[in-house]
Amino acid sequence: MSKTSFLNPFKAIKYLFEKPQTLQYPFEVKEIADRYRGFHKNNWDKCTGCGNCADICPNKAIEMVKIAELTAKPEEGMKDERPQLDYGRCCFCGLCVDICPPGSLTLTKDFFHIHFDTNTFTFIPKDEKMDKETYKSEKDYSIFQASITHRKENYDGFSPDMQYALFEPDRVEMPEIEPDVRKLSFIEQVIGYNKEEARQEAGRCLECKLCEEACPANLKISDYIDAIYRDEPKESLEKIYEDNPIPSICGRICMAHCEDACSLHIRGDSLAIRWLKRYAADQIKNFKEELELKPGTATGKKVGIIGAGPSGLSLAYFLRLQGHEVVVYDELPGGGGVIRTGPPIYRLPLEAIDKDVNYIGSLGVDFKFNTRVGKDIEFEQLLKDYDAVFMGIGNTVSFSTRVANSEKCVLALDFLKDNKIGEMRKVDKQVVVIGGGNVAMDVARETIRLQHLQYPDDKSLKTMVVSLEDWGKLPATDVEIKEAKEEGIEFNPAWGPKEVVLDDKGNIKGLLCKKVKSVFDENGRFAPSFYEEQEKFLESSMIIEAIGQKPDFSFLPENLSDKLKFTERKKVKVDENGMTSIPKVFAGGDIVNINLDAVTAIADAKVAAEGIAKFLLNNKNK
Amino acid sequence: MRELELYFGPQHLGMVGNFSITLKVEGDRIVKADANPGYLHRGFEKLMEQRTWMQNFPLVCRINVVEPDHMELIYSMAVEKLAGIEVPERGKYIRSIFCEMARVASHLFGLWAYANMLGFDTVAHWAMYHRDILLDMFEELTGARVYHIYVRPGGVRRDFPDGFIDRLVKTLHKIGGKVPDYNATFFENRLFQKRAEGIGVVTREEAIRMGAVGHTLKATGMKYDIRKIEPYAAYDQVDFDIPTRTGGDAYSRLLTIRDDMIESVHMIFKLIDKMPNKGEVYTKTPNPFKWKIPAGEAYVRCESSRGELGLYIVSDGGDKPYRAHFNTPSYNHGLTVLEKALEGESISDVGNIMISLYVVPPEIDR
Hints:
Shape of chain B: globular
Largest sheet of chain B: 3 strands, antiparallel
Mean pLDDT of chain B: 88
Strand order of the largest sheet of chain A: 10-9-8-11-22
CATH architecture of the largest domain in chain A: 3-Layer(bba) Sandwich
Oligomer: heterodimer
Radius of gyration of chain B: 20 Å
Helix content of chain B: 40-55%
Number of domains of chain A: 4
Distance between the termini of chain B: 39 Å
CATH topology of the largest domain in chain A: FAD/NAD(P)-binding domain
Radius of gyration of chain A: 31 Å
Structural class of chain B: alpha+beta
CATH architecture of chain B: Orthogonal Bundle
CATH superfamily of chain B: Cytochrome-c3 Hydrogenase, chain B
Largest sheet of chain A: 5 strands, parallel
Number of strands of chain A: 22
Strand order of the largest sheet of chain B: 1-2-3
CATH class of chain B: Mainly Alpha
CATH class of the largest domain in chain A: Alpha Beta
Number of domains of chain B: 1
Largest interface: A-B, 42 and 39 residues
CATH topology of chain B: Cytochrome-c3 Hydrogenase, chain B
Distance between the termini of chain A: 109 Å
CATH superfamily of the largest domain in chain A: FAD/NAD(P)-binding domain
Low-confidence stretches of chain B: none
Strand content of chain B: 5-15%
Number of strands of chain B: 8
Shape of chain A: globular
Order of helices and strands of chain B: EEEHHHHHEEHHHHHHHEEEHHH
Low-confidence stretches of chain A: none
Number of helices of chain B: 15
Strand content of chain A: 15-25%
């Protein structure tokens, strides 16, 4: 080892003449890095209260607390809870930021807090807009007062970034038949997930359960999704059957309110909950053999159900599990009600309906098909024979536009029904469909298929949709509109029918339309107004009206139909037990709720099932 | 002369960290040393069994205060091995650069402790300052100064921010430019040489027998480095040297640390030159709430600034580790090697030797 000079260390003396490196804190403050992980900030407008931050927190520093000023909106996936931080536990890892599905949670560059009171270390973060007290402008901020509640505004540090999110925002694409192919026949459009796809999609679920609150029937969604992820389709189906006895149907045509509430939906695609339900239902080939559900012990009570639609089927199932004897009447040759006649075969094949109906039948529910109440059997007879009667008759009669010569038009439900369970209708080469809802889309899309089947290789085929509502306000779902467009359907939004124009022979020549000024009046009531002078003529020889449907109460005898009370929105009025104003008559489904879909009908059936159980029990005691 | 029992630490000015050594002394010569750990047991390995695979990486870094980064790295490597996850190329380079930054920061911290212990306050302050400006770079890259929580299973959490490389190079040049001053005032200072030369000698045979790793082994002339033996991250992509010395004493160990630090800086420059400009920095891992790893076990190792660091991890197919166990370099150095190295030395050199062996007590207890 070479010996160095004793004077060598004195080279350090030069540092005496340099500027000191020590910062004179707090007068001299170092700039904080842009990614700094300091105190939380939460944008309450974006936050849904899903609680994923609390779930991932390794130190359980985050607790979801109820906020009195907030109102929960389950249908929008909004909870009235917001995260509360305990800075005695937080390790500032930022996992909460990376998992936050709406991206509302951010870490800021503020980190300074000293206090005698440990309670001040628990804090519900808000953002600058909500909490002007905490976030100070440059002018009002003082480092001598710096604390959790005295922070700089717009001082974001570690921020949410989709590129590094811990969840998977993209949905596993559902294999579908291409528009050019599917419009040529009634082939089922959606192919369905295979096992790998289903498990991958189920693996995206964050288990925040916003969907379960949004679902009218409150299905245990995260449980059955998790069972699919664990590759247990039977367990999954059993979970579904706790609340929904028609999984093959709902797995295809459910309006999926759950998917609108899904927390992944905000910055990515919502979980494909409906398709996963369909996967679970399709995996089990024979429900009767695999599921171990048994009817309850016989109670000796009899319930008659009118209509084998979703509400009637579900109620029959729930009551059967309670042990009651159930008889279901329906005028159609099979179960499903409006679901049997309405949704086109390419969306809901009859086999899927029969699979669910047959299983309910196998539990001992007595189906009396081809039996119309009021014609084949009188309503009073039902009241006499049964301890309770349920009406789930659905909306079975189409409205007409009632413009001049509209009696020459075809009504939507008749058209759909014939195509589904009767003989396929003959269509013309140019067809106009009036209406902008999902039924109108079904009609238009069936029409284009029929046209291609009946006039192969004809270039003049044309299906046009006329709707009062403009783009963006159409009542049909976005997916339906997109798929209809893909199949070549022409849209004429914001036009209303003025007159059906006839030729000399009395055949339809076309539809004369007038421009819509507004659809609703200032009170939000349906009252369309038009620019009468702005006209448009759509040439066609066939017009189908799909502007809505109503129930048919003609089976009710006069003395009872007078007693039946309706709400302001012309719905049958029921109490909290699902009972109508006629004693021992219950109701549910489209005639009661305004959602007009299968899953809400199931929800009604659940209410009625409990109401009927209570009603029967009370009667027994008397 | 009468034999006395002397308790050195945990409350002792010369002790670094919560650690204690029971010394049998004759005069001021140590006859026998008995390492006495356990003051810092926090039960990390047990805690890891309570947390999901994703929740664990913010935890493990806390095992070692001086150098948390290799703990994150080794945990992530173990999970990747168990789950069969491949890290993208750019992610590997970032991991290597990050780990070399950590090595420099850790060595500077060690240098502070050592210089401080011997009374070289000037050097100690320099080392602390230089560590601090390196921590600024960590803050910019990861969002935190000490517990970076940056290396995650699958890769790293964020890419380099804009202009980061330029600022990193500038900072490293600033630190590297002071090496002559460090040499003049410390490494080549005759006072320091007198304090460190021939102190705490560990021969190569002893080192190997007692499981010494890192620079304790390198100071006896062994070229033993996991980065070479079992390359991980991007270490197989760059050419680097393993500095060694032959003395086996405290002075040789310190010079090895210095050379290691210089080599690390050079390696960062090489890595920056070679790393791909674009690309993913991490591989997507499954949903953290549903992530289950097939049953199995894995042992992974890496070269931390103190030597070989190992992690044995077992999965029973669940969403949490069934068992995790760390093999930390300080465990060997602080218990067996230290006891041997202290024999026959003076009481005044206990801290000197302990820090030259780079014993970090939290690593022993975990």
